[in-house]
Every structure is written in structure tokens, then in C-alpha cells.
Design a protein that fits this description.
Elements (H helix, E strand, L loop, with lengths): L1 E5 L6 H12 L5 E4 L10 H9 L4 E3 L3 H6 L10 H13 L2 H7 L5 E4 L2 E4 L14 H7 L7 E3 L7 E6 L5 E4 L5 E3 L4 E6 L13 E7 L4 E7 L3 H10 L4 H9 L2
Parallel strand pairs: 1-2, 2-3, 5-6, 6-10
Antiparallel strand pairs: 1-11, 4-5, 7-8, 7-10, 9-12, 11-12
Helix pairs in contact: 2-5, 7-8
Bound molecules: zinc ion.
Length: about 240
């Protein structure tokens, strides 16, 4: 089965459409998303509705989604993120809100687990180190776990009892899954990349070929930035989109 994999859309509709157009060319039978459909960006309703119209769409809830639904205190966030959450609450349609309400904290099926932050703390932990991989090892059961939250495309792997390896993933990089090895993949962020590369990030997971491949795609960053300015979102958020940080 071929899955399109993405995360951290953050209400960036233009980036989302670019990513979905690319993923669609692989004829995926399903889509996996690690949460944060909203927050930061200008078009929450459009993003939520487009995602939920995808075939076989599986998505877990992210910390921004939770805060918009009043399930995580706004005090958790810095001031520009908190302002964007207030904007999202004001803007969100009843339909988009009810779709967000359906997203669970974690999902597992077949060989795959989905969480936003980490298996032991899906809402909050940024999973970035080998030590964290080990600390999380007993909190998920499958061979592969997809996470988001850090907005950095990463492959983390642990062969047998060895110390985990961590690889930053670049455009076109394809990981071939080995038996007796567990993987945590972060597909990077669609709507607000943070690895000094402003291109939207996504991946393709092929369960038969046992591969995960990452893609970075150019989209109309300025168009999203202009819309953010018109909707009164913070200059800091607008600027970071251009810098990919
Ligand atoms: Zn995020």
C-alpha cells in the first residue's frame, strides 16, 4: 500500500495544495497526517476540509489543534503562536471544528503508529535524539512510527539493541526499511518548515517496497505571507515562513 505522509500543515493552504498535488502523482491509497492542521497560518477551514476529503485519511491531533479545541492551555505557547490560536478560534467554521474533534491522540494499525509529538507524550514532546528514541521505545508497538511537531524531516532507526541512528532527510532521500529495525520518521512540515529550507515537506511510504521517501516542494510562499498580513497575523510568523525557520 502506498501512503502519502505529511504533518504540520498549519493552515497554509497553498503549501498543502502543492504537497497533495505531488503526492497524488504516486497514486496513494491513503494519507497519513501527524497533526497540527491549524495554527500559525491564514486558512484553517480550507486546510481541514481539503484533508478530510482525501481517501483513507488518517490523522492524529496536534498541540495547536488541541489548543483551538480548548484541550491544551494557550499559556503553553509563545505570544505569536497564541495570537494565531486566537485568530483560528475566531475563524474556524463549525464544520472544520467538528472534523478536528474527531482526531485521536494516537493511532496504530498494521505496522504503523501515528502521533504528533512522541509516543509517550503525543501533545508536547519534540522527538529529536537517540536518548529520546530509547525512552519512548516501550510506548509504541509497531515497526514504524510517524511523528511531526519539530517541523524537521528526520529518520530515526534502531537496529536490534544498538543505539539509535538519526539522519536528517533531504529532498529525494529514500530509506529502505530493514527487518529487525524500528523506525521513527518525521515527514517535516507542510506549512511551516524549520530546517532553514522554506520548501513544503512531505513523504511517500510504500509498505510493499518497504521504503520511505521525502520530498521538498516549492510553493508560493509570498502568497501565503500576503494573506497572513491581510488577516493580521504576526510579522514574526510571516517572516519565518520565508526563512524556513
Ligand atoms: Zn506544528
Amino acid at each position: 500500500m502506498i501512503y502519502g505522509v505529511f504533518s504540520d500543515v498549519h493552515a497554509n493552504y497553498d503549501a498543502l495544495r502543492t504537497v497533495l498535488k505531488h503526492l497524488h502523482s504516486f497514486r496513494p491509497e491513503g494519507y497519513l497526517c501527524c497533526g497540527d492542521l491549524v495554527g500559525y497560518g491564514p486558512q484553517p477551514n480550507e486546510c481541514v476540509e481539503l484533508c478530510f476529503a482525501l481517501p483513507n485519511f488518517k490523522c492524529v491531533i496536534g498541540n495547536h489543534d488541541m489548543s483551538v479545541l480548548d484541550r491544551l492551555p494557550v499559556a503553553w505557547f509563545n505570544s505569536s503562536a497564541a495570537e494565531a490560536i486566537a485568530f483560528t478560534i475566531k475563524t474556524l467554521s463549525p464544520k472544520a471544528r467538528s472534523l478536528l474533534e474527531t482526531m485521536p491522540l494516537s493511532l496504530d494499525f498494521g505496522d504503523i503508529t501515528l502521533v504528533h509529538g512522541s509516543p509517550r507524550n503525543p501533545a508536547e514532546e519534540y522527538l529529536l535524539t537517540g536518548e529520546q528514541f530509547l525512552e519512548n521505545a516501550d510506548f509504541w508497538k509497531t515497526q514504524v512510527c510517524f511523528v511531526g511537531h519539530s517541523h524537521v524531516p528526520l529518520a530515526m532507526s534502531r537496529a536490534g539493541e544498538k543505539f539509535p541512528e538519526i539522519t536528517a532527510l533531504r529532498h529525494g532521500e529514500k530509506i529502505l526499511l530493514e527487518p529487525r529495525t524500528r523506525y521513527i520518521f518525521n515527514p517535516g512540515s507542510v506549512g511551516q518548515p524549520r530546517d532553514r529550507n522554506n520548501r513544503a515537506s512531505c513523504g511517500i511510504f510504500d509498505t510493499e517496497a518497504r521504503t520511505f521517501e521525502i520530498f521538498r516542494l516549492e510553493y508560493k510562499v509570498q502568497k501565503t505571507q500576503e494573506l497572513m498580513r491581510r488577516r493580521g497575523l504576526s510579522e514574526l510568523l510571516i517572516e519565518r515562513l520565508g526563512n524556513g525557520w
